[in-house]
Structures are given as structure tokens and as C-alpha cells.
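Supplementary Note 3. Input sequence used for the single-chain structure prediction.
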Amino acid sequence: MKTWWLLLSALLFLVIYQVLQLNVGLHPLLLAVYGYIAVFLLIRIAGLDLKQLGLSKKQLRAALPWSLTVVVVIVTMLVVVYQFVPDQFADERYNLSLVNALFVSLVVLPLKTVLLEELFFRGFLYSFLLKQTSDRLATFGASVLFGLWHLGTASGVSLGFLYIFGLGDIATAVTTIGVVLVTSFAGYIFVELRKRSGSILTPIVAHWAINGTAILLAAHSLR
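The predicted structure, written as C-alpha cells, is reproduced below.
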């Protein structure tokens, strides 16, 4: 009974968060406060400790080489790709000055998005599902829900997606499905990084490296 109640609570948290973000337009700071409080409550009720979350000191130290390697690889790959297809990185949401883009990438993004999502999906959700089911089902559940989580932000995809699929209802549907599939696959990669490195630190820095670098490149492409 407790398992289903916690899962329903977790799903309710995701729905309420999206409603507050997209429909109510709650201030980002208040939204983040709500998110962290809800996630920490879920972790507490589920009885997960730091080791189960991949956040013990030993796990964090052991994951440092993994994390540094992942950051270097991701940033290098994105910068190389940008040299050939800069338009694919264009996103009007990040039509910012260099200073503002750095602030969003290095401060706002990690606190508002990356850390919160990783604590929920690769921290609470994966760890909780792992206690209740098999590793395969836990990985699948955490990955698919991460993809569905991005349904709410699919309308804000970059100009690169629009360049590929164009405009119109069919193109919008294809783009939305594409965003969900891509982010589900990213969720799977993040879970695997956590398992292989032994800590949630590695998916945190990988998530930040992808989104943070993309923001800086988007701002540069729109200058």
C-alpha cells in the first residue's frame, strides 16, 4: 500500500510542478522551493539514505574521475558539433548577453533544473523503484518518466527542431514525440552513468554539461 501511495504522490508532484510552471506561472524561486521540499519529503518517507541515493562521501569521491571525464567529453562534442551546425543550437529562450547566459548556465540551471531533476529521477525514483522491483524495471521507469516529464517543455524546443520538422500540427506532434524519445534515452544514459560510477554525482554533472553548454552555444548563435 505504501509503495503505490508513494508512487502516486511522486506522479502528483510532477503534475503539480508542471501546472505551477506552465499554467500558473509561479516565480522560479518559489517553484524551486516547492520542488526541493516535495523531493526531500518523498526521500524521507521512502526511507532512502545517502548511500541508496548515491550521495555518500565514499561514492562521491569514487565518482570524481567519471564526472570529470564525462564533462570534458560532452563539452568537447557539443562545441565540435556547433562548428558545423550552429543553427541547430538556436533557442530564443536564451537570446541573452554573455554575462546573463553564464549566470543562467552556471547558477540558475544547476539549482532550478539539474539538481532538482537528478535528485528526483536518479535519486528518489530510481532508488525507490530499485527497492521494489528489478534493476531493469527501475531503469525503465525512471527513464520513461523523465521523457514524459519533458512533455510540458516540448513547446519550447530550439529553433533547430523547428528547422528540421517545420511548423504545423503534424510537425508539432512529431517534434513532441521526438523530444520525449530523446529525453527518455537521455534519462537511460543518466541512470547508467549513476550505476557505472556508483554515484548520482556523475549524472548531475553530465546533465549540467549538456544543458549548460547548450545554453551558452544558443546565446552565441543568436548574437
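The chain has a mean pLDDT of 90. The chain has one domain: 52-221.
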